[in-house]
Design a protein that fits this description.
single chain, 409 residues, alpha/beta, Rossmann fold, Aspartate Aminotransferase, domain 1, 2 domains, 13 strands, 22% helix, disordered N terminus, NamZ, DUF1343 domain-containing protein, signal, peptidoglycan beta-N-acetylmuramidase activity, NamZ_N
Length: 409
């Protein structure tokens, strides 16, 4: 994708204080921990689980290892698969989520089985004919490693893949190791909790839109709350982030997490802007600034910004392809302070020239509730809408405390 979307993320180097992780509750994962050597300097920023090889390499000795990974699964600049194979680990298979193992597939593109051209390792698709590993796919695997960057939103499909991988592992007697990574929206816990009627691949678990967990903490919650089919639990180990990480730690991703989240600002806006994917408004897929602008043909000419989606590498068939979209340029707009807001939705619905077709059937899948569409149509204020989801969100926040591995700040 052309500049500026192709620019890499800028890593933030932060001086962090050393904080002990919270004790794991019953049902939470075993955490592989090792003390820092006396006199060793504190890390300059969050040390990801994958970089702490001494904590999990012993668990892989003599094992056939399956990797649930993508382009974010790196130790420094090296892919995790290459790092492990260079240390003699028997990598039996790679399990590719949405966008593929190398993160190059466009949005919605099905992933095919094959072999990775660089490593020669068998690649099995978890975004094609099946999204849950089958017994055949796991027959030659003893342990699964999950190492994928999340962005803290319920509808980001990589966490649904985590759930289904854990479920398959529990059913087939396999172990799962989650190599934890920071949540760039880790301080945000906000939005309606998904209702049971709206279980889907973009709403696998009863989470709010901004869930406020790392993938390691979420894995512990999935196991501890018995959300896997049949109430099973998998054999789970989490390799936590190094000392100093908190949920308030700023973190700019060193690698783009998916093709249409090219900047830290897009990542921060994603929980709020993604709901427009269930409307007739474009989120600027097919431009150089996806998830940093919103607009559509049914918005008034008074809107201050226009763009026209065109096919590109990240979105070969973007919604509203070739149509002039009137809306807002959000590249200079701050992210919502609580992590999620419905204010843009209220504004764009109120100014739509075609309110009858504003929402699509996908809206409830993304919002996780039947109420939000009705509230927007009824002209409810954001404060009134927030009040309606507070009981469920409050219960979630209380439950979340049991599974936190890191301080809030």
């Amino acid at each position: 994708m052309p500049s500026p979307a192709s620019l890499p993320f800028v890593a933030l180097l932060l001086a962090l204080r050393t904080c002990a992780a919270a004790p794991a509750p019953a049902g939470a994962p075993a955490a592989a921990r090792a003390p820092r050597a006396p006199g060793a300097p504190a890390p300059a920023g969050p040390v990801v689980g994958a970089a702490q090889l001494a904590k999990y390499l012993p668990l892989l000795q003599g094992k056939r290892v399956g990797l649930v990974v993508n382009q974010s699964s790196r130790v420094g600049n090296a892919y995790l698969v290459d790092t492990l194979r260079s240390r003699g680990v028997n990598v039996a298979a790679i399990f590719a989520p949405e966008h593929g193992f190398r993160g190059e597939a466009a949005d919605g593109a099905l992933i095919q089985d094959g072999r990775d051209a660089r490593s020669g390792v068998l690649v099995r698709s978890l975004y094609g004919k099946t999204r849950k590993p089958t017994p055949e796919m796991l027959a030659d695997v003893d342990v699964l490693i999950y190492d994928i960057q999340d962005v803290g939103a319920r509808f980001y499909t990589f966490i649904s893949t985590l759930h289904l991988v854990m479920e398959a592992a529990a059913e087939q007697g396999k172990s799962v190791i989650v190599l934890d990574r920071p949540n760039p929206n880790g301080a945000a816990v906000d939005g309606p909790v998904r209702e049971p009627a709206f279980v889907s691949f973009v709403a696998q678990d009863p989470l709010p839109i901004a869930h406020g967990l790392t993938v390691g903490e979420l894995a512990g919650m999935i196991n501890g709350e018995k959300w896997l089919a049949g109430g099973r639990r998998c054999r789970l180990t989490v390799v936590p982030l190094g000392p100093g990480y908190t949920h308030a730690t700023p973190y700019a991703l060193p690698v783009r997490p998916s093709p249409n989240l090219p900047t830290p600002h897009a990542v921060a806006l994603y929980p709020t802007i993604c709901l427009f994917e269930g409307t007739n408004i474009s989120v600027a897929r097919g431009t150089d600034f996806p998830f940093e602008a919103i607009g559509g043909p049914t918005q008034p000419a008074s809107r201050p910004f226009t763009f026209t989606p065109q096919p590109n590498a990240g979105s070969p068939t973007p919604p509203l392809n070739g149509q002039l979209c009137r809306g807002l340029d959000l590249r200079g707009a701050p992210a919502p302070p609580t992590g999620f807001s419905v204010q843009y939705l209220l504004d764009f619905y109120q100014q739509s020239t075609d309110k009858a077709h504003f929402f699509s059937n996908k809206f409830e899948q993304l919002s996780g509730t039947v109420a939000l569409r009705q509230q927007i149509i009824a002209g409810k204020t954001e404060a009134e809408i927030r009040a309606s989801w507070e009981p469920g969100l409050g219960q979630y926040k209380q439950m979340r405390q049991k599974y936190l591995l890191y301080p809030e700040k």
